[in-house]
Amino acid sequence: MSATGYGASAVLQLIGISYRQLDHWARTGLVRSSVRQASGRGSRRVYSFQDLVALRVVGQLREAGVSVQTIRKAVAFLKRHAEQPLSTLNLVGHGRKVFTLTDDPSRLVEASENGQVVLSISVASLERHLQEGVTRISAPQDVTVRVHGNAYRAVFTPDLEMGGYTVEVPELPGCITEGDDLAEAKRMTREAIEGWLSVTEPAKSRSRVRPG
Predict the structure, then answer these.
(1) 182-198: per-residue pLDDT in tens?
(2) What is the pairing mode between strands 117-122 and 141-147?
(3) Helix or strand or coil: residue 149?
């Protein structure tokens, strides 16, 4: 994966949790944003792809009723071994629940004290699923914007770190804008097209007028 960071909006789409959960896990240190942490009002948390993997693991473990203490050990291990392929993890917890590998190196399991498997998470599969999700939500999309009765193709590219969209109108060179959400991006695109036309159209008209 690239080193691109992921803002809260992208994380919520990819992981399927609420902002309240994400904020709580960050504030309690369960899964913090490793690229950039919030430092006050108006600042943004930025997560790495490895953070996304940890968040997905935490979500699945919590749904299965695993204790927060055990999850903290699992997350700490993931953080320390971020440079290793996830399929090689050999995670061991302490207490009543133990995390270890089965004979299949791509499967992380939780076992009880008597060795009975009560939960199985395919970490490698989880990573592939997240990669597919990142590709899906980061893909540019074409949007038709109408100005003065004319239709213009605008390319909306999601900003996964900051949220919102960067927009470019290919047939109008230099016509670029952005918006915090889709509705604002469309409004800003219409304004950008109107501004582009107001500058270039009079110039074209003047160039067609030649002195007699």
Answers:
(1) 999 999 999 999 999 99
(2) unpaired
(3) coil
